[in-house]
Amino acid sequence: MFRLRFVPDNTKIAFMRGRIAGLVVSAILSTTSIFLFFYPGLNYGIDFRGGIAIEARTQGPADFGALRSALNGLGLGEAALQQFGSPDNVLIRLERQPGGDEAQQKAVELVRQMLTSKFPGTELRSVEAVGATISGELFQNGMIALGLALVAMLIYIWFRFEWQFGVGAVVTLVLDVTKTVGFFAITGLQFNLTSLAAILTIMGYSINDKVVVYDRVRENLRKYKAMPLRQLIDLSINETLNRTINTSFTTFLATLPLAVVATGAVREFAFVILFGIVVGTSSSIFIAAPILLFLGENKLRRGPKPKLVTDARP
Amino acid sequence: MMYFARWKVTAILTLLALGCIFAFPNLLPTRVSDAIPGWLPHERVSLGLDLRGGSHLLLEADIDSVVHERLTSIVDGIRSALRKANIGYTDLGVQGNAVKLKLRDPSVIETARPLLEAETKGLDLTIADDGSVTASYSDAGIAELTQNVMDQSIDIVRKRVDETGTREPTIQRQGKDRILVQLPGIQDPEQVKRYLGKTAKMTFRFVDTSVTPEEATSGNLPPTDEVLPPDSPRPGEPGSYVIMKRVMVSGENLTDAQPSNHDGMWVVQFNFDSLGATRFCEATRDNVGKLFAIVLDNKVISAPVIRDAICAGSGEISGSFTSESATELARLLRSGALPAPMKIIEERSVGPDLGADSIRAGVYACAVGFALVTTYMVLAYGLFGLFADAALIFNLILTIAALSLLQATLTLPGIAGMLLTLGMSVDANVLINERIREETKLGRSPIAALDAGFRRAFATILDANLTTLIKMALLYVLGSGTVKGFAVTISLGIMTSMFTAIVLVRWIMSVWLRRRRPATLPV
Question: For the residues B215-226, what does the mean pLDDT come to?
Fold first, then answer.
C-alpha cells in the first residue's frame, strides 16, 4: 500500500548530540533579533503607531509622481505611497498628525477632497485613521496579551507536567517569539494587530508541538525506567517525528494559499505563520528538548525508587 | 472505546444533522435566506465590516469638559446667591474637580451654609473654620455623571445616525467613555462624521448692548456675559458679540425643526414645546427692540432684533445657509444636543468592492487549502486519511453553523483563522493515526490498536487544544475589532474539532471495523 511519508519509520537520529549547537544557534538568532528590534526597529503599522492609511483605486494606472506631489502639497507631512496588488491600487500612508485625535480626521478629509478634485474617479477602497489614544492602548493591550499568554502557558504546562517541562516550553516560546520579531524587523513587514494575532497563533502552534514531544517523553519516562534521559528524549523525538512533520506540513499547506492569493495584512499574516511553523517545529527538537535534558538530568522522577527499602524489611 | 451505545450514535447523528441545517442558509443567496420563515433556521454568518464594507467609528466623550461646565455654572450660582445675601468672599473658582472659595468673614459660615448647600447639590461640601469652602465631585458622583452622559449620548448618536438613513447601524458603549458606531454599507462616512462631531447645543440668549465687544475683550467683560464669535461672518456683521450667559430658551425645548426655502433664502423652521413657547413669548414681549442671539456650539448663528412678541410657539432661524447646511442644522436640532463633546479617535472604513474582493480571496484560499490538506491526508494515511477528511468537512460545517447560530462576526482574519483551524484540527487525526500505526507495529490486534490509539492520543490532543484556547481567549479580551473575529473562529473551530476529529472519526472507524472485520489495519 502506498503511503506518502517524509521520514521512514523507526528512525534513530541522535538529536541530542546537537543540543549545544541547537541552543547556541538559537541564542545567536534571538539575540540578533533583539538588536534588530531596537535598530533598525519594526515597521509599526497604524494600529500601534497611529496615523492614516488609505487604499485608493485610481482611474487607470496610478500616476505616482502626481499623487506624491499633490499629497505633499497638503502639508500633512511626508506621504508614503505604495503600489498594492494592481497598478491602479495605491496605498497611501501618512504619519500620525500632530494635534490630537481630531487632527487625524481633518487630514483624512483633506486627502479625500484632494483625491476627488484632482484625480476624479478615484475610489477610496479603505480608510483607516487611528489617533494616539487608541494606538497607545492597542499596543499596551497587545503586549499584555503576549505576556499573559506566556505566563498562562508556563502555569498550564507546569500543572500538567513538571516544572522542568514548563520552563523548557516557556523559554523556547520566548526564543520563538523573539525570532519572529526579528523576522518582522528583517522583512519590514508591518507590525500591527494582525501581526500580534499571528504571533499568538505561532505560540499556540509551537506549544502544541512541545506538548506532543513532552507527552511522549513523560510516557517513556514511565515505560523505560532505566533508560538515560538523553537516550529517552532522542527516542521520544524519533517516535513523534512523523506526526510532527505531518502536522507541520498540513498546517503549511493550509496556510500557503492565503500567502499566495490574499493581499495586504492577511497575506503578511500568512507569511508570518509560515515562518512560525518552521521555527515552532524546529524549536521543539533543538531547543525545548535540550532544555529539558539539562534541567531534568537526574531530577525527573524515575519511577518508585523506595521499593528496595520495603523489600529489606522483615 | 470502540463500542457506541445506540443513544450515542443518535446524538452524534443529530448533532451533525443540526450542524448541516444551521449552516445551510449560508449557501443560499440572501434573497432566498431572507424569505425563510422565522421558525426555521435562517441565520447566516454575519460578516464583519472588513468583508461587507462599511465604517467603524470609535467616539470618545469629553467627560472632563462636562464636569468643568457643571462646576462653572455652580460657580455662577454661588456668586449670585452670595451677592444677594451680601456675604463677602474671595478666590471663587473651579480647581480640578472642585469649586473653591473663601468667605471673608468666618463668622457668617452658618448663614452661608444653607445657601452653599442649595447651590452645590450632588457635590461633597466642606466648610473649614477659617471660612474656606470646597465643593467637589466624589468618585461616585463622577461615575454617575459619566453614566448619565453616556446614556444620553448613545441615545442621541443613535438618533443622528438614523437621521442619515444608515441601515442596521450598531451603536454600543465601550469602556468608560466611548461609543462604538458601526455603519455597514457606508463607504464615505464624512456626512455621518460631521453629524457626530457636532455637539449641537443651541440656545436663545440676549445680546448685551451695554458694552461693545472691543470693551469686553479689553477686560471690561461683565461676569454675566461672554464674548462669542459669529458662525460664518457675513459682510457688515461684527467680528464678535457680547452675549449674556443666561439662557432664555434652549434647544431642549424644540420639538421639531425643518429646512425651508423663503424666496431663495434657506432657513430652518422650528417649533417649541409649551414651556419653550411660553418662555420665548414672555421674553420677546418684554424686550421688544432689543437684540437676541441664536447660539449654536458657542457660535452666533444670527442676532436679529425683536420686532414683536413671538408667541406662536414657532419661529425660524436665518443665517447664511445653503440647502445642505440648513438640512444639517435641522437634523441636528431634531436629534438634540450631545451632553458632552465627542471626538472620533479611530476610523476604519472599507468599501464594498474591497470587501467583496476579500471574500473572494478568502473563499478561494479556503477551497485550495482544503483540497491540499485532504489530498495529503489520503496520501499519507489512505482510508484513515479519508476518515479524517470526513471529519474535516464536518468540522468546517459545524464551525459555520456555530458562527451562524451565535451570530458571531466573521472577519478577514477570521477566514484566515478557519484555514489555520483546518491545519490544526487535522493534527488530532495525525496524532491518532500515527499512534494507531505504532500500536499496530507493536503487534496489537486492530481493535486494541484503535482503542489504544484514541486513548493515548486524547491527552495530547486535549493539552494542545486547551493551550490554544487559552491564548485565543486572551486575544479576544485584549484584542480589538477584526482580530476578535480571528479568536472567535479559531476557538469555535477547535471546539468543534474535538468532536469531529475524536468522536466522529472513532465512530466511523468502529462502524468500519464491524462491517469489514479487517485482519490488519490499512494505516
Answer: 83
What percent of chain B is predicted at pLDDT more than 90? 31
- Residue scoring higher pLDDT (B2 or A183): A183
pLDDT value at position A312? 39
- Asked if A253 lies within 8 A of B369 by C-beta distance, the reply is yes
B157 touches chain A (CB under 8 A): no
Q: Give me the number of domains chain B comprises.
A: 3
Residues B364 and B324 in one domain: no
Let me know whether B358 and B498 are in one domain.
yes
CB nearest A212 (choices: B460, B470, B471): B460
Residue B41 lies in a domain: yes
Indicate whether B243 and B323 sit together in one domain: yes
**Domain CATH code at residue B101:** 3.30.1240.20
Contact (CB<8Å) B471/A266: no
Mean pLDDT calculated for residue range B23-35: 83
Report d(CA B108, CA B85) in Å as an integer: 11
How confident is residue B138, by pLDDT bands cut at 50, 70 and 90? Answer: confident
Q: What is the CATH number of the domain that holds B38?
A: 1.20.1640.10
Residue ranges making up the domain that contains B413: 6-52+352-516
| pLDDT at residue number A306 | 40
The alpha-carbon gap from A69 to the nearest alpha carbon of chain B, in Å, equals 24
Summarised one tens digit per residue, pLDDT across range A80-124 is 888 877 888 899 999 888 888 888 888 998 998 899 898 888 888
Residue A302's pLDDT is what?
A: 55
For chain B, say whether A247 makes contact (Cβ under 8 Å): yes
Q: How far is CA A296 from CA A19, A20, B449, in A?
A: 14, 16, 31
Instruction: Suggest the residue from B180, B198, B475 to mutate for an interface test with chain A (most A CBs closer than 10 A).
Output: B475
Whether B367 and B492 map to the same domain: the answer is yes
User: 10 Å Cβ neighbour count for B478?
Assistant: 23
Chosen domain end from B123, B141, B159: B141
Interface contacts A/B by beta carbons within 8 Å: 233
Q: Are residues B229 and B310 in the same domain?
A: yes
Note the pLDDT of residue A304. Answer: 46
Residue B306 sits in the same domain as residue B221: yes
* Identity of the residue in A101, A200, A255 whose CB atom sits nearest the CB atom of B344: A101
- Residues A4-17 as b/e (b if ≥16 CB within 10 A, e otherwise) read eeeeeeeeeeebbe
B321 and B464 in a single domain? The answer is: no
**Residues 379-438 (B) with a CB less than 8 A from some CB of A:** 379-382, 412-413, 415-416, 419-420, 422-424, 426-427, 430-431, 434, 437-438
Cα B64 versus chain centre, distance: 20
Residue B431: closest CA among chain A residues belongs to which residue? A243
A266 at the B interface (CB within 8 A)? yes
The verdict on a CB contact (< 8 Å) between A258 and B369 is yes
Contact list, A200 vs chain B (CB under 8 Å): 471-472, 474-475
Q: In a 3-state reduction of DSSP, which class is residue A207?
A: helix
Domain final residue pick, B141, B169, B189: B141
| Domain match, B469 and B433 both | yes
Give pTM, 2 decimals. 0.81
Q: Are A42 and A183 in contact (CB under 8 A)?
A: no
| Facing A255 at nearest CB: one of B349, B364, B420 | B420
CA distance B100 to chain A (A): 31
Let me know if residue B160 belongs to a domain.
no
Q: Over 60: is that where the pLDDT of A13 sits?
A: yes
Of the ranges A25-34, B73-82, B257-266, B349-358, the best mean pLDDT one:
A25-34
CA dist A313 → A303, A304, A305, A310 (Å): 20, 17, 15, 5
Instruction: Kindly give, in sequence order, each residue whose CB lies less than 8 Å from that of residue B309, ignoring residues fewer than 6 positions away.
Output: B281, B284, B285, B288
Please name the residue that has the C-alpha cell 473572494: B360
* A266·B420 Cβ contact <8 A: no
Distance from CA of B452 to the nearest CA of A (A): 13
Residue B229 inside a domain? The answer is: yes
Which are the contacts of B12, defined by CB distance < 8 A and separation ≥ 6? B4, B503, B504, B507
> Does residue B391 lie within any of the structural domains?
yes
**Residues of A in Cβ contact (< 8 Å) with B176:** none
Domains of chain A: 15-44+135-296 (1.20.1640.10), 51-130 (3.30.70.3400)
- C-alpha B254 chain-centroid distance: 28
